[in-house]
Write a structure and sequence with these properties.
The protein is mainly α and 109 residues long. 78% of the residues lie in helices and 0% in strands. It has one domain. It contains 4 helices and no strands. Helix 1 packs antiparallel against helix 2 and helix 2 runs antiparallel to helix 3. The model has no long low-confidence stretch (mean pLDDT 77).
Amino acid sequence: MNTPIISFNAKLAPDFNSYSPLLPARLKNNTSQVAYMLAQEIRNPVGHINLSVDMLESMVVDNDLKMYLAIIKRNSTRISHLINEFLKYLRVDDLQVEKHSIHPLPDEV
């Protein structure tokens, strides 16, 4: 469980000693990777909860128990939806690389 954090710190360690213009982008990228891994780790058990509730719903005949299963299902569906929205936020659109001449830059400065 500690491996992602250790590898996260190891990736950043050299960058803390000297500032690089790419440091903010690297920090954001690494933070996004950790957040993505965390969201996936939450998503997996929520999927298992949903499957288990589906199985129990077919076996339970008591209406009171069905009510509690409905509550569990509704909340796990809500958590799943929140995780999906969070993952959409983490996705970065592909950057479009374009070639530009640097010759006009000195004239603009």
